[in-house]
Amino acid sequence: MILVNLLALIALASTVVALMLTTQDAALDRAVRFREAARAAAVARAGELSAAAALRRDLLEAPNADHLREPWARVVQPGTAIDGGRFSLAVADAQGRFNLQNLSQEGPAAATAVALLERALADQPGRATALVDALRRAGPVTDASQLAALGLDPATVARLAPFVTRLPGPTPINLNTAADPLVNLLFEPAAAQAILAQRARAGFVTPADLDAIGAALPPGVGFTSNYWWVRTTVTIGGTEQVLTSLLVRGGEGGAPAATTLGRWWGPAAPDG
Fold first, then answer.
1. How far apart are CA 268 and CA 121, in angstroms?
2. Which domain covers residue 134, as residue numbers?
């Protein structure tokens, strides 16, 4: 009987020790994950800061044009090994897309926005006008996914999503960073092809280039930008942090500045 009791006590003690070790291991795992997450977040913020520094420098050195061969576009890191993990940085000109906020205003730029939408939805006659009316009644939208609630079918929303964004206020489209399909919607076919060819050769187009091909710049279209999306993805150990930032660029007291308007943590973020 004494032996049985002794064995029972030993078994109980072993269970307690195992539970203590398991608890300690779990606490250690949590501490490691928290440390990894903190380090990954710090690296992600550093990525945002590097993009902001490049944009400030670009405003100082080349204020009259923004295009994809400038230094701000070359800070992109598709996937770089760092101590304990990997780091990637993507910088996208937010004004290379059609800003849904442009539909909320009146005037020539708004007319261009409506015409652009009509061409994008040419296979659905009357849908562009109905969508503009619905957008103006509904107020500001946050991203393309909300267009479905305004009557667009999922396939059309998916088709528009790569070319639209939502920014704090109306903005011109940057002709130097707009995707080829967007340029094709903005100009007649011959002019669009000439613009795309010039952009492929030189990396950008200028007002003189448009004059040379006899193309007029539509209202609401320009050659520079003020808004950028920056997405940083950092993996440290088993922890991943994704930071999407919206930056606005301008001058403050004569000095160039790039300010963060918003940050979103996680893979689900506004258009960018």
1. 27
2. 97-222
Q: One-letter amino acid identity for 145?
A: S
Task: Tell whether 20 is covered by a domain.
Answer: no
In a domain, 152, yes or no: yes
Q: What is the pLDDT of residues 15-63, one digit of tens each?
A: 544 444 455 556 657 777 888 889 999 999 999 999 999 999 999 999 9
Cβ atoms within 10 A of the Cβ of 263, count? 14
Cβ(172)–Cβ(220) below 8 Å: yes
User: CA 121 to CA 112: how far, in whole Å?
Assistant: 14
Inside any domain, residue 193: yes
Residue 47's closest CA among 192, 228, 177? 228
Q: How many domains does the chain have?
A: 1
Residue 89 lies in a domain: no
| Number of Cβ atoms within 10 Å of the Cβ of 123 | 8
Q: Are 66 and 93 in contact (CB under 8 A)?
A: yes
Instruction: Report helix, strand or coil for 94.
Output: helix
Q: Are 238 and 33 in contact (CB under 8 A)?
A: yes
Question: Cα–Cα distances in Å, from 221 out to 54, 102, 169, 259, 260?
Answer: 24, 11, 15, 23, 24
Helix (H, G, I), strand (E, B) or coil at 70: coil
pLDDT in tens, 177-212: 999 999 999 999 999 999 999 999 999 999 999 999
- State whether residue 133 is helix, strand or coil: helix
Length of the chain: 272
Q: How far apart are CA 118 and CA 131, in angstroms?
A: 10
Buried b or exposed e, range 66-78, using 16+ CB within 10 angstroms: bbbebebbebebe
Are the CB atoms for 227 and 272 separated by under 8 Å? Answer: no
Q: What is the pLDDT of residue 173?
A: 95
